[in-house]
């Protein structure tokens, strides 16, 4: 309340102040609401992407299982998270990179279904060699260590796949030595599981962009 020159009290603009306060609160509420809606939209988008990604991975797994149905049913290979596993003893003798006849026959049976699968999905095949944790025997001078042994085994499988009809542009080799065991190397049974070769379809690398010609 204020007084004018005549001594009469006048009412302060309370409603104007109240209106300004409500406008400020309403603006803050709107901003908060917009923020919540944006966060919910981002979360919904993220969940949708994850769902689609899992659907794609599941379809990929089913397609690979269908392509390899016969060797999977025979128990000659395993399929785990998209990785095709072959026991080392099926392919090689202990501490050797010379492919055994049974191993060559198995690889030959895998070429056609894998080639069709890779072509349909525009992917390529990574062939990985693994060993157990035991060092190469002292009398074995062919390989310096498990890294070299696993590399030569992966190369042997890769070259055999190419010889049997796999395009060389669709396959490459990798070596892991005793790293990434399937199971702890606690006994001979476990070590036999870790001596293996795995094949995994992977996306092709994006082609490198050609550098633009410099302006003359």
TrEMBL record:
Keywords of the record: Membrane, Transmembrane, Transmembrane helix
* Record has Disulfide bond as a keyword: no
Asked whether the keyword Zinc-finger is assigned, the reply is no
Cite the record's Basic and acidic residues compositional bias ranges. Answer: 186-198
| TM annotation in the entry | 21-44
Top-rank taxon:
Bacteria
Q: Pfam families per the record? A: OmpA
Stretch list, region Disordered = 180-216
Q: Sorted alphabetically, which NCBIfam families does this protein's record hold?
A: PRK09040.1 (NF006547)
Name the UniProt record assigns to this protein: OmpA-like domain-containing protein
Q: Which organism is it from?
A: Rhodoferax lithotrophicus
